[in-house]
Design brief:
Elements: E1 3-10, E2 13-22, E3 28-31, E4 37-42, H1 47-56, H2 58-69, E5 85-88, E6 91-99, E7 104-108, E8 111-116, H3 122-149, E9 162-166, E10 173-175, E11 180-184, H4 192-204, H5 213-222, H6 226-236
Parallel strand pairs: 2-4, 6-8, 9-11
Antiparallel strand pairs: 1-2, 3-4, 5-6, 7-8, 10-11
Helix pairs in contact: 3-4, 4-6
């Protein structure tokens, strides 16, 4: 998939954006949490017509970038040392690392305890914690998918064919045309109501693939307060 890089000037601002061409009829502009601008465009769209659309939407793009910028500086890089805090389902837990003959992760009141054969190895601690998050995520996400399906009048039409978990730097989830639901592993750090928002958002794409007005009507019917949930998610995991 070839990515095209462009920029336009809008007053005293310069807006850079990435274009990916797909088989589609409409052009879609998205501002990511890191303030980058990405555009999904029809294969036949000219660079000039795309630039004109970006210029028309420039006030909205800049407003979105200002919104995301208010959460900077973002969460500092994790060091995976004892005493550091880590999120799980919207709550902060302090990391405790202890020496043990067996590797094991245990959740207790306010604490994530890493029992490790190599307690002084940050890399080992990271690997164990990531593995624990992944296991918790698969169980919790499958549970929440079932809970979110009942929001639709015909759950069988939006049920995903499969679930994939991975780290995604610029999105919380995606739904492929074949029904493969991908969710960002970081979502296991968010509250359940935020996880439900992302899942419901993606399930709606089983009905309407693009972010068209019809799509947002479907999302509104399924989850009336989706905008509040989205905003809270971005505040917590910025």
């Amino acid at each position: 998939m070839k990515l095209e890089q462009y920029s336009i000037d809008y007053g005293r601002y310069s807006i850079s954006y990435t274009v990916v061409r797909r088989v589609r009829k409409t052009l879609e502009i998205a501002v990511e949490p890191d303030s980058t601008v990405s555009i999904a465009a029809p294969i036949s769209a000219s660079a000039e017509s795309i630039a004109a659309k970006v210029r028309k939407r420039a006030p909205w793009i800049l407003a979105q970038q200002r919104y995301f910028d208010q959460f900077n500086p973002r969460t500092p890089a994790r060091r995976y040392v004892a005493g550091e805090t880590h999120l799980y389902l919207g709550r902060q837990y302090r990391l405790r690392v202890t020496s043990s003959q067996d590797n094991f992760v245990k959740l207790m009141r306010g604490i994530i305890e890493i029992q490790s054969c190599h307690p002084d190895s940050r890399e080992e601690t990271k690997v164990m914690l990531d593995k624990w998050y992944r296991a918790k995520a698969r169980t919790k996400f499958l549970e929440r998918i079932e809970a979110c399906l009942v929001r639709f009048s015909r759950p069988e039409t939006v049920t995903p064919k499969s679930l994939a978990l991975r780290f995604m730097p610029k999105r919380w989830g995606s739904m492929s045309g074949s029904g493969r639901l991908s969710l960002n592993l970081r979502l296991i750090q968010a509250p359940v109501y935020a996880i439900d928002y992302v899942i419901t958002h993606e399930l709606c794409h089983r009905i309407e693939p693009s972010h068209s007005p019809r799509y947002f009507r479907i999302l509104k019917r399924a989850m009336n307060d989706w905008e509040k949930r989205k905003e809270r998610l971005e505040q917590i995991l910025a």
